[in-house]
Amino acid sequence: MTESLDPRIRRADLEASPASSGLKQNEHWETYAIFHQDKRGAAHEFVGIVHAPDPELALVFAKEQFGRRKKTVNLWAVRSSDIYTFQHEDDDMFSTVPDKNYREASGYPVRKRINKYLFDQKEEEASKA
Amino acid sequence: MYGNAYIEPDSELAAKMAASREEDPEKLAEFEARIARGEKIEPDDWMPAEYRRQLLRMIEQHAHSEIIGALPEGTWITRAPTLRRKLALIAKVQDEVGHGHLLYSAAETLGKSREAMINDLISGKSKYSNIFNYPAKTWADIAVIGFLVDAGAIVNQLANAKGSYGPYCRALERICYEESFHLKQGYDAFVALAVGTPVQREMLQDALNRWWFPPMMHFFGPPDTISVHTEKLMRWKVKMASNEEMRQDFIEQYVPKIWELGMTLPDPALRKDEATGVWEYTQPDWDEFFRVINGDGLCNKERLAVRRYAEENGRWVREALMNPIQKRMVPYA
Amino acid sequence: MNNAIKDLLFRLADDELVLGHRNSEWTGLGPILEEDIAFSSIAQDQIGHAVANYTLLHESAAADEPLPDAIAFGRNEKQFFSSQFTELPIGDYAFSLIRHFLFDHAEMLRYELLTASSFAPLAALARKIKGELKYHVLHADLWVSKLGQGTEESRARMQTALNEAWPYALGMFEPSDYEAELVTNGIFSGEEGLQESWLEVVAPIIEKAGLTIPQASEPKYGGRHGYHTEHLQPLLDEMTEVYRLDPAAIW
Fold first, then answer.
1. Rounded-to-integer distance, Cα B184 and Cα B186, Å
2. Quick one: three-class SS letters along B229-269?
């Protein structure tokens, strides 16, 4: 191998480093889901994961991987295995049937009834007079 | 129906992958219809085994490329010529590591652990972009890599960001945002040399001469032969544009910026056919392309040796905090 | 008074530049991706603090001082007033972490004192970088405590690193020739007091991590007066290699 152009690599003794026996399972620890808050009052939003051995280092790592560019006021780290979720294949559970307008603001046209009431009142007064 | 937001690789994932292998035609039709509607595929969705395999290969290689790509540029970290360039270069190499992190996270959702991916990188089993097997000989190489090579990467990544796999798209969205900083700072360093002293222009021209063909070859590859296989990958939105389309896009956007500064490119045939709008160019040396791919580039050995060294060097740190009996899981990123 | 401020700013800036340069050597080669990113940010912060102090030198302290790049890239080792601690090679990750821990705690306290400096531009800068230093010490404290209590190997490496680092760390508090003037004029309250409060902060953390401060160490002085180890001039030669290629060039 020709000599490296990188002075950092020339200082490192590549030949002396032990032959790689490969990384072990779990050598990169476990994963934490990171939630990012960009300003006070905003909700924390999922932005990705970090590998960390514990929650403290997860936050310290997340601070630079997810907070170094975006405006950030706070982060949460949650062990990935502690997140409970539905399966995407069941997303039909979430589709709203059109006649469920009792859950929508548009399902309550109150003004129409008030107007009718006011009109009837007027009619009644007129007929009395 | 519901459960923890991860897959246990040994049981559930194996079952899922076995199920995928059966290629249930009804599920396949549903899967393809979803993609055709422009919807994304998420990690817990049913997907054809071939889709999973191709995506994993692609995202993993992309992640490796970022980590290995940090090495040629890292060559000049300690020698950047101003405080601002020094800060920008460190930040840029840091971003490449950050991109590797985001891409490994996306690849992990497909069922392969980060440890296994890194093992396959350092054993040479999995590949990375061969562009990083060329040396960064002078400071001007940093300017050219930051401009020209990143430009090639952006053309690629912007295309892939419109792909079908949710986690990959999410990673690429952030990566493309950061790449725009890379390109700008690369262009700035490039212009500084181009408008500079004769010494600076000369080193820039030399770097351009060496760095013109590598991205032309390695980012976009030989013109595709449209096989049934390629068609399927395009239908599944794994492959988003043909090699030649991306190469044309790259030339169209960046060559005029180089010529404008009175710099030249080492291809006398390079010109735009004004009638068709298509750029003509000399075919790169495809033999060299295959030689580098097969491990005979100038830096293949060093890149892997350095990566192996870094992994070995950091092992005691990782081992000190590791929990060997912890159950492995595939996170959703 | 002017010379005293200049001397102080050179010491502050040169420490941060030389150590930031050293720490940036890990970028892309760190022990795990997440830590690679975190440590690179710390290196960038340090170089950033150097830039801020060189800018103060140029703008507020002395009209005859050149632009920050010329100050950073235009001097030889005799003209550098960084402590010898900062110029030592990166060593293994244990050494780099221990140095970061010992150095950033000193920086944190130093800049805290400087927020009350009578030299207003420096007091303003000290207030600005407080947040970055808070993260540096959080990062350093976690690593020292975890690796001190990790495996037998990690504990041994951390202890070896601490033994090597300690006399040089004490060298950070080498008094300057302008000590009395700085104190009298309320610019900076002095190295001696700083060293005492630093020791009060780092000693319990080291102890809690299961590590031991080496006994009876002679501080490695000299750096604050331009006397350096064999490592600084090669570092500067490397750092300025491109800068020196063409004196007329703007990079």
1. 5
2. HHHHHHHCCCCCCCHHHHHHHHHHHHHHHHHHCCCCCCCCC
Residues written for chain B: 333
Beta-carbon contacts of B228 under 8 Å, excluding residues fewer than 6 positions away, are: none
Structure ipTM: 0.97
Read off the pLDDT of residues B271-308 as tens digits, 9 standing for 90 and up. Answer: 999 999 999 999 999 888 888 888 888 899 999 999 99
Number of Cβ pairs < 8 A linking chain B and chain C: 145
- B194 neighbourhood in chain C, CB within 8 Å: none
Cα–Cα distance measured from residue A23 to residue B311, given in angstroms and rounded to the nearest whole number: 8
- Partners of A30 in the β-ladder: A52
Query: What b-and-e string marks burial along C58-78, b requiring 16 or more CB atoms within 10 Å of the CB?
Result: bebbeeebeebbebbbebebe
CA distance C111 to C126: 5
Write the residue in B105, B137, B305 that is nearest to A1 by C-beta.
Answer: B305
Kindly calculate the radius of gyration of chain A based on its CA atoms and give it in whole angstroms. 31
Sketch the domain layout of chain B as residue ranges: 6-331
Dihedral in degrees, nearest 10, Cα atoms A32, A37, A38, A42: 160
Q: Which whole-number Å values give the CA distances from C82 to B85, C21, C202, in the listed order?
A: 22, 12, 21
Write the DSSP string, C140-197. Answer: HHHHHHHHHTS-HHHHHHHHHHHHHHHHHHHHTTPPPTTHHHHHHTTS---HHHHHHH
Which pLDDT band, with edges at 50, 70 and 90, does B163 fall under?
very high
Closest partner residue to A23 (CB to CB) among B79, B119, B326 is B119
Q: Which chain A residue shows the shortest CA-CA distance from C22?
A: A8
> At residue A45, what are phi and psi to the nearest 5 degrees?
-125, 140
Tokens, residue C100: 């970061």
Rg of chain C in Å (alpha carbons): 18
φ/ψ of residue C103, rounded to 5: -70, -50
Confidence of residue B167 (pLDDT cuts 50, 70, 90): very high
pLDDT in tens, B176-229: 999 888 999 999 999 999 999 999 999 999 999 999 999 888 888 888 776 777
8 Å CB contact between C86 and C18 = yes
End-to-end CA distance of chain C: give it in Å, rounded: 35
Residues of chain B neighbouring A7 (CB-CB closer than 8 A): 78-79
Dist CA C213 CA C203 (whole Å): 7
Domains of chain C in start order, with CATH, are: 2-245 (1.20.1260.10)
User: Rounded to an integer, what distance in angstroms lies between the CA atom of residue C110 and that of residue C108?
Assistant: 6
Identify the architecture of domain B6-331 in CATH: Up-down Bundle (1.20)
Domains of chain A: 28-85+93-128 (3.10.20.520)
